[in-house]
């Protein structure tokens, strides 16, 4: 069995997302979903319901008044963002540990995941874009493949680092050369196993190679996740061993209308936003 096959097999054995998160995911993928059905799905898990209310009332998301019900929280956050935050709650315990293969200390991957989601919000607002549904979710989950490779497979990253830094090779290309698979592909396989929407799976799979995507998913979600990931790393959030090897694709920048001045503005807004969502990181923030 090749190393690629070993990794794919390990990915398929990763535990399923918790029941509450799976229930919310199923409800949200119904085109006729209503807020009452979604509220009931969340309320089945008291811890999840409390977390959704806490986030809805955080400084970053809050409006002029406090919300006290799940329905009100959904109205404030939007169904797509609730979906992403539900999944984030499910993976936070794993994402908060050290990811040895990527030289990520406890909490760093989680910080980068949330900073990318905040960054994608700021990109959408600053560029005045009408983003596809689940963009926030895809940004939160874009590096989930690193959890599988670094935690469940425990890959030896030294050869990957050598190729990436000594030969100036893009990190995902170095992963392919050494492992036969990259962390975006691993993440996509995992999310597909979890029955997440195809648009999320595609955004995660292609966020490092947005110029090569040729499918039917809206290109904008892939471009936005790619740009948010790169800008978050440029902002110094969750860089690990591979962080400095990422840049925003010129093709993507042109498609989005993103220039250096706008990028700097977005990074500053992202960093300010992170100060307002520290509770999303839990006890691992700032370690």
Could you characterize what this model shows?
By secondary structure, the protein is mainly alpha-helical. The protein has a single domain (3-16, 96-284), classed as Hypothetical protein af1432. Helix content is 62%, strand content 0%. The chain has 16 helices and no strands.
Keywords:
62% helix; Hypothetical protein af1432; mainly alpha; single chain
Summarize this structure briefly:
The model is unreliable at 283-287 (pLDDT under 50). With 287 residues, this protein is mainly alpha-helical.
What name goes with the CATH superfamily?
Hypothetical protein af1432
Query: How many strand units?
Result: 0
Helices and strands, in order, run as HHHHHHHHHHHHHHHH
For the sheet with most strands, the description reads: none
Number of helices: 16
Task: Detail the topology: elements first, then pairings.
Layout: H1 3-12, H2 19-28, H3 35-43, H4 46-56, H5 70-77, H6 79-95, H7 108-126, H8 135-141, H9 144-153, H10 158-166, H11 171-179, H12 183-193, H13 198-206, H14 219-234, H15 250-256, H16 260-276
Helix pairs in contact: 1-12, 2-3, 2-6, 3-5, 4-5, 6-8, 7-8, 7-14, 7-16, 8-13, 8-14, 9-12, 10-11, 12-13, 13-14, 14-15
């Amino acid at each position: 069995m090749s190393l690629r096959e070993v990794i794919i097999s390990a990915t398929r054995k990763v535990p399923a997302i918790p029941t509450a998160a799976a229930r919310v995911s199923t409800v949200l993928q119904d085109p006729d979903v209503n807020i009452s059905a979604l509220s009931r799905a969340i309320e089945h898990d008291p811890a999840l319901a409390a977390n959704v209310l806490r986030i809805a009332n955080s400084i970053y998301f809050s409006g002029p008044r406090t919300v006290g019900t799940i329905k009100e929280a959904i109205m404030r956050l939007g169904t797509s963002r609730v979906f992403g935050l539900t999944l984030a709650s499910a993976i936070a315990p794993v994402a908060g540990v050290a990811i040895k293969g990527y030289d990520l200390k406890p909490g760093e991957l989680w910080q980068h995941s949330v900073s990318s989601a905040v960054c994608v919000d700021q990109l959408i607002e600053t560029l005045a874009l009408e983003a596809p549904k689940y963009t926030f979710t895809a940004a939160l989950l874009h590096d989930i493949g690193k959890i599988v490779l670094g935690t469940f497979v425990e890959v030896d990253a030294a050869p990957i680092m050598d190729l990436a830094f000594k030969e100036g090779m893009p990190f995902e290309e170095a992963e392919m050369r050494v492992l036969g698979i990259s962390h975006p592909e691993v993440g996509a396989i995992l999310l597909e196993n979890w029955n997440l929407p195809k648009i999320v799976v595609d955004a995660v799979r292609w966020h490092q190679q947005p110029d090569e995507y040729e499918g039917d998913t809206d290109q904008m979600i892939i471009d936005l996740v790619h740009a948010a990931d790169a800008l978050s790393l440029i902002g110094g959030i969750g860089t690990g061993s591979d962080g400095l090897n990422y840049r925003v694709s010129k093709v993507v920048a042109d498609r989005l209308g993103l220039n250096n001045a706008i990028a700097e503005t977005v990074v500053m807004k992202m960093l300010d936003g992170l100060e307002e969502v520290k509770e999303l990181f839990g006890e691992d923030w700032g370690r």
